[in-house]
């Protein structure tokens, strides 16, 4: 009776496992990173499932077959069996090692350094830190993401576009290098749908490389507990088709040069300042009126940005 129940439990478990694997939709790959990570996951599952089935099968067969054996004797040495399981295990581990190495050694997963150890300088970043990896491709796009409590500042160092907040705009089908850093303490840049994750350390840059296939909007999270505002430290990654991205960058640049850009209810202003750094945040609620104003200004004799949102 007990054995029957175990059999039922076991076959139920295996059926669930098989269902989980089969039911997993073969979703369209969103990025190279995601493709590599889930490709490895699938490869390893193809190895793990037969092993699980084999081991559990032998286990339950043995339990059932010897259920009435009141006088068990230990197994005698079986050299052939020992050699078989040693060799089989070695082959499996070799496969797992090689498959993982292929993915971890890729610039998209192991860091841009892995495939591009050159020391080409990344210029025009907002902080004077080491660690940023320069692209090896001519058409690559570079984005600087500076984490701070509790928002993401996004700059485009090669385009002289800076001060975007919480929205990372990148083109599809082009290599993108994201230089991640922090101004206060630990944060982590995490976009699970794109297979992107990188720590944001104060004092250094970490570069992640990606190439996204699917234009769209993806959620960006902070994946390192950083304080009371951590759960609100969200952003989005807008992936635009290549030509739309070029147009967008062009718009940002010209609005920056014009010194101002206005939309109803939203105001963005860029000013030029001498040698100063200023941060101001003001929130006010009065009667039926809510006003949020955030101003960030960083200037090395270059520029200052102010963003103001008002709803009334
Ligand atoms: Cu955080």
From TrEMBL:
InterPro entries assigned: CcO_II (IPR045187), CcO_II-like_C (IPR002429), Cupredoxin (IPR008972), Cyt_c_oxidase_su2 (IPR014222), Cyt_c_oxidase_su2_TM_dom (IPR011759), Cyt_c_oxidase_su2_TM_sf (IPR036257)
UniProt-annotated stretches for the region Disordered: 253-312
Molecular-function GO term, any one: cytochrome-c oxidase activity
Keyword tRNA-binding among record annotations: no
Enzyme class: translocase
Domain named Cytochrome oxidase subunit II copper A binding: residues: 138-251
Residues in Cytochrome oxidase subunit II transmembrane region profile domain copies: 14-111
Gene3D superfamilies in the cross-refs: 1.10.287.90, Cupredoxins - blue copper proteins
Family of the protein in this entry: Belongs to the cytochrome c oxidase subunit 2 family.
NCBIfam families reported in the protein's UniProt record: CoxB
Name of the protein described by the UniProt record: cytochrome-c oxidase
Gene designation per UniProt: coxB
């Amino acid at each position: 009776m007990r054995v029957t129940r175990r059999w039922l439990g076991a076959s139920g478990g295996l059926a669930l496992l098989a269902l989980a694997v089969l039911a997993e939709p073969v979703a369209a790959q969103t990025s190279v990173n995601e493709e590599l990570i889930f490709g490895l996951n699938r490869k390893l599952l193809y190895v793990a499932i037969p092993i699980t089935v084999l081991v559990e099968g032998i286990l339950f067969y043995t339990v059932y077959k010897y259920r009435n054996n009141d006088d068990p004797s230990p197994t005698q040495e079986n050299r052939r069996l020992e050699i078989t399981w040693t060799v089989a295990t070695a082959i499996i581990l070799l496969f797992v090692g090689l498959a993982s190495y292929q993915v971890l050694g890729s610039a998209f997963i192991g860091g841009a350094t892995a495939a591009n150890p050159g020391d080409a300088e990344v210029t025009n970043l907002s902080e004077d830190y080491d660690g940023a990896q320069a692209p090896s491709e001519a058409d690559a796009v570079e984005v600087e993401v500076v984490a701070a409590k509790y928002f993401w500042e996004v700059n485009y160092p090669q385009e002289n576009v800076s001060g975007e907040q919480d929205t990372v705009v990148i083109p599809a089908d082009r290599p993108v290098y994201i230089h991640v850093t922090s101004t206060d303490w630990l944060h982590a840049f995490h976009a699970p749908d794109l297979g992107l994750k990188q720590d944001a350390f104060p004092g250094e840059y970490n570069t992640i490389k990606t190439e996204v296939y699917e234009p769209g909007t993806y959620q960006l999270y902070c994946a390192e507990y950083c304080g009371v505002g951590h759960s609100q430290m969200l952003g989005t990654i807008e992936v635009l088709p290549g030509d739309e991205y070029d147009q967008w960058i062009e718009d940002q640049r010209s609005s920056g040069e014009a010194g101002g850009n206005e939309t109803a209810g939203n105001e963005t202003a860029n000013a030029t300042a001498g040698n100063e750094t200023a941060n101001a945040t003001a929130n006010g609620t009065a009667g039926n009126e809510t006003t949020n104003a955030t101003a960030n200004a960083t200037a090395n004799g270059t520029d200052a940005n102010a963003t103001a949102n008002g709803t009334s």
